[in-house]
Amino acid sequence: MALDKSIDFLKQIRLNNNREWMLDNKSSYQAAKDEFLEFAGKLLAKMQLVDEGLNGLDPKKCVFRINRDIRFSKDKSPYKTNFGMYLSEGGKNGGKAGYYLHLEPGDNSFLAGGIYAPDSEKLAKIRQEIDYNAAELKKIVDKKSFKALFGAVQGDGLKRAPKGYAEDHPNIELLKLKSFIVIHKLSDKEIHSISADKCVSVFSEIKPMNDYFNVAIS
């Protein structure tokens, strides 16, 4: 299914990011929201055949709100200019590695996966797993098909080695990371014809990496 209503709405909210406009165009927002949620449901149904950890998940627990948290931001625009969904065991706030779709016109859309900013306990477990068994992770992320889609694993990182690890550790660059994510960018042309099957093909490549992280933190 196409996401034309969602894309058109996001183009408009970028130009009219205020509550008055949103109130006047509530029906357009609702139509876009319903369309994106329907896409999330179709994608989730297909992904449950790939990742059984997603079984029983409600699409509504995967889609992010459009309202921005402006409490600590200089930018007081009340709304995001994107729609996002995160498919993960336990939903978007479950704290597990998962799969993310970011829809934002202006060639800013992407498919992504991994684990973003895990808490200190989970991060310590992931680093321990990398210390003990980096070979398994490297086998996944160094695969030709994986690199073609995502390049390298990325995320904010420390400047120095984390406590307990030597600066000359053979996997120090991985150990320095505080998030472990991969991104596949999508052009506006691609998002106009995006399909659940396309997302599944990309997310399927991410699944072994997510399994690695989820085993580490469980």
Automatic annotation (TrEMBL):
Pfam families: DUF2461
Domain of life: Bacteria
InterPro entries: CHP02453 (IPR012808), UCP028451 (IPR015996)
NCBIfam families linked: TIGR02453 family protein
Official protein name in the record: TIGR02453 family protein
Species of origin: Fulvivirga imtechensis AK7
